[in-house]
Amino acid sequence: MKHATFGRMELLQGDITGLQVEAIVNAANCSLLGGGGVDGAIHRAAGLQLLAECKTLNGCETGQAKITAGYRLPARYVIHTVGPVYRQRPQDAQLLAACYQNSLKLAAAHGLKTVAFPAISCGVYGYPPKKACAIAVDTVKVFLQQDHGLEKVLFVVYADEIYRLYHDYLTTNVH
Ligand code: AR6
Question: Is the pLDDT of residue 103 over 90?
Fold first, then answer.
């Protein structure tokens, strides 16, 4: 399992559902009622109580975030955010940055110290991973510089190719 540290940011290759952090972020859809990819994995690992809580949330708009308990996950909370479907519009980047910002704000509002993100929108939603990686890292970096009490943010990725993109970008842009 590959792993690298860049100040308060960490890069990991693996399954986000197994992480013992305070919160993992879910790349959900607007219904918040589950789906495939990382969303499916999180719901399978957390159990049906997660779906029951999600049903009470009335969905979520693209770029926004909502928090639930983690139930059977090792993580105490799940922060559900909805990434943009990539359509080459100018607002795609703003919406993806908003996912990271709003998830981090929610974590900070709950006094959380560690949060793990998957590569939001980089699967079914078709965001080019290289562009998405730059937005993810830049947004988290600015948030951490503003110091909201967060101690560590992890990027958890599956594919070798995406790991390499994050590693290169973090090496060049985070000291
Ligand atoms: N741990 C870490 N990363 C994962 C995991 C995992 N267990 N599983 C997949 N990935 P996607 P999206 C990676 O498609 O593009 C769902 O159906 C995956 O390789 O999960 O935001 C939702 O309900 C990819 O790099 O999310 C929505 O309808 C990244 O996570 C839609 O998919 C995101 O891929 C959201 O699409």
Answer: yes
